[in-house]
Amino acid sequence: YPVAFSENVDSKTMVPIDCFNEPWVIFRDQDGKAGCIRDECAHRACPLSLGALVDGKVQCPYHGWEYTTSGECTHMPSTVQAPTSVRALPCVEQDGMIWIWPGDKVPEATLPDLSPPSGYTIHAQITLEVPVEHGLLVENLLDLAHAPFTHTTTFAKGWPVPNSVKFKTAAAAALSGFWDPYPIDMEFRPPCMVFSTIGLSQPGKLSGTNTKDCPNHLHQLHVCVPSKTGTTRLLYRMSLDFAWWAKYVPFIHKLWEYMANQVLSEDLRLVEGQQDRMIRGANVWNHPVAYDKLGVRYRRWRQQQEDSTSRSEHSQIEDDFD
């Protein structure tokens, strides 16, 4: 799972995160290599992220115990040194992101490519904690039909409401395709990534029905990491194939952050409402229609993964019993 942008983790910075309801902290060692260890001192369970980085090691703020990126405790002030460690996760960097593997099995050797398409320049990389279960957020991102009704003060302001909105794919079970009548391509990529490319007739103006016919494009990557119960760690990257110089405008990142938060706030009040109803037992897929195709396919994919995990755990229980 990509959990942080590389640019946000320097030699003096610790980044605490939650992943699948467990606390971790990301930091760099003296050689600049990123690591991820459990954010919980082996001594008294104090959050290590409240401490400091000392020569590439995390120093617990309670009694000064120090940990390397492998999780080994190499210094115990005021007492006799003893073999002690905390759990460390496999951690690598690729495409300007820090990835971790929170599973028990050996991770795949090859990671998916999350870099923007050729000819695009990255203009914004934003990290947000969103108070919504990650699957609901993914389904929201995979739904474009809601835009003219929800995003009326941001990117969809003035959009007409078509008589028909459809998501078209090249294969029966595909998780990628394009929106008709909008010039927007979209893809869900396991386990939690959503890509979209928006065709623009000019900066800020949506026009036409095909991205290939548009002169300018905005490319987006959303990574929705399962954080805590009812919470998602969202990594957002925006790239453009025009106006490359705009990234050098002073404080432009503040503008992008403001716009991203405005769009998200329009979605949140609705998706948080869905989450509340789910907690009370509601089914958010009561009546799927044609434009729900991509979201339904994502939900089916996720259900297959959960069913597979459940069967695997059941088989393991039987093996242990035998």
From TrEMBL:
Domain of life of the source: Eukaryota
InterPro entries (UniProt xref): Cholesterol_7-desaturase, PaO, Rieske_2Fe-2S, Rieske_2Fe-2S_sf
Any one of the GO CC terms: chloroplast
Signal peptide: none
The keyword Transmembrane helix belongs to this UniProt entry's keyword annotation: no
Keywords associated with the record: 2Fe-2S, Chloroplast, Iron, Iron-sulfur, Metal-binding, Plastid, Transit peptide
Gene: CAO
Organism: Klebsormidium flaccidum (Filamentous green alga)
Name of this protein: Chlorophyllide a oxygenase
Lineage of the species this protein comes from: Eukaryota, Viridiplantae, Streptophyta, Klebsormidiophyceae, Klebsormidiales
Pfam families cross-referenced by the UniProt entry: PaO (PF08417), Rieske (PF00355)
Residue span, Rieske domain: 1-100
Subcellular location field: Plastid, Chloroplast
Gene3D superfamilies membership: Naphthalene 1,2-dioxygenase Alpha Subunit, Chain A, domain 1, Rieske [2Fe-2S] iron-sulphur domain
MF GO annotations: 2 iron, 2 sulfur cluster binding; chlorophyllide a oxygenase activity; metal ion binding
